[in-house]
Amino acid sequence: MAETPNIVAYLKPVCGWSNSVRETFSKYDLQYEDKDIINNPEIYAEMVQKSGQPLSPCVEINGQMLADVDGNEVETWLVENGVVEAATA
Question: CA torsion, points 27, 78, 5, 12, in degrees to nearest 10?
Fold first, then answer.
């Protein structure tokens, strides 16, 4: 596995897609910063500025923005980019 990735996740507190992203990080025991885009308008504005669009979840991994993704898409990106090895769970 590669070095520990720097992960910032722009998520809603209660959302199926956001929860699927959290579950993916938990599955691989990855540390990440969980930024609440619902209760903090500045964080939502930061997500829109960085991702170029208003939909969530958005996840930034080592400076690479994945916009409007779910947990499966994040997991695929992590595996394809060598951040984690594919796991079965």
Answer: -60
Q: Which domains does the chain have, with CATH numbers?
A: 7-69 (3.40.30.10)
Q: pTM score, two decimals?
A: 0.93
Answer left, alpha or beta for residue 37, where phi above 0 means left and psi between -120 and 50 means alpha.
alpha
User: Widest CA span of the chain, in angstroms?
Assistant: 37
Model pLDDT for residues 50-65, shown as the tens digit of each residue: 999 999 999 999 999 9
Two tokens, residue 11? 């998520």
